[in-house]
Please model this.
Amino acid sequence: MKPEARDNYAFIDSQNVYRGIESLGWKIDWFKSRRYLKEKYQVTTAYLFIGYVAEHNDLYDSLQKAGFVLKFKPTIPDGDGNVKGNVDADLVLQVMIDYADYDQAVIVSSDGDFYSLVRHLYHNQKLGKVLSPHERTCSSLLKKTARERIVYMSNLKSKIGRSGGIKKNTA
Model:
């Protein structure tokens, strides 16, 4: 990241991050995660793209208190009865809507669908970092285009992981 950057935005694929971290055997602490983004990458605005489920209003309140700007996507049931809120297009659209407003974008996902977006940001000096839950699950397309700007969250458990008792914290 360029040292003089003052206004960086994060664009977070919440379901991808939550499931990726969960597969590592630990839970993300969204409050610590938001603080980490601010301190490490000078993120002033952190969008969290999330499928809307009415029963999770307490979670949404908590995420807003942590400092995230929530961008909701209606959910639909998949063939197995699970709900799905595909946020990829919404995330890309928001990155482009805000393009002139930030110095660097931090993309938080392992999803290869963001390859073209990351490539565009990289070639236009607008890519700060790509944070991916785990190297093993990160798309090879993202690895290829983000190059040296990719950070694996699997190494960040002590900084963004939840400690202590059981507390519902899903996204």
User: Anything to note?
Assistant: The first helix runs from residue 14 to 22. Confidence is low (pLDDT under 50) at residues 165-170.
